[in-house]
Amino acid sequence: QVQLVESGGGLVQPGGSLRLSCAASGSIFSIYAMGWYRQAPGKQRELVAIITTGGSTNYLDSVKGRFTISRDNAKNTVYLQMNSLKPEDTAVYYCKARMVASSSAGIVYDYWGQGTQVTVSS
Q: What are phi and psi of 19, to 5 degrees?
């Protein structure tokens, strides 16, 4: 019941910056957390950053100090500001929202955006 629309990807030179946006609609009141994942060609998908409804954040070690996740509750949007980009940051970035349907039973529902390509190259 949650729809996610991502934007902001593109081609950038090493050292450059991009800001990704993920706008959520639907049953946003049920969302426990939102996060950004990325998947490079031939690699497994990895968590980049998450933010909970309580405001707690966590980051992949390799992006700490360079990336910042934030949210605008009025716009139902989560952002990922990416600075000092490196070629190894090249990947498809996905927004994910998690809804907890039953905490006692451990039932959760994850909703994914379509992904946006980030390419860091000179």
A: -125, 120
Give φ, ψ of 9 to 5 degrees: -70, 170
Tens of pLDDT, residue by residue over 60-114, are 999 999 999 999 877 889 999 999 999 999 999 999 999 888 888 989 899 999 9
Q: What are 46-59's pLDDT values in tens digits? A: 999 999 888 899 99
β strands within 1-122, DSSP E: 2-7, 10-12, 18-26, 31-39, 46-52, 57-59, 67-72, 77-82, 91-102, 107-112, 116-120
User: Would you say 18 and 121 are in contact if contact means Cβ atoms under 8 Å apart?
Assistant: no
CB 122 within 8 A of CB 13: yes
CA dist., res. 38 & res. 42, Å (int): 12
| Secondary structure (3-state) at 80 | strand
25 within 8 A of 113, measured Cβ to Cβ: no
Length of the chain: 122
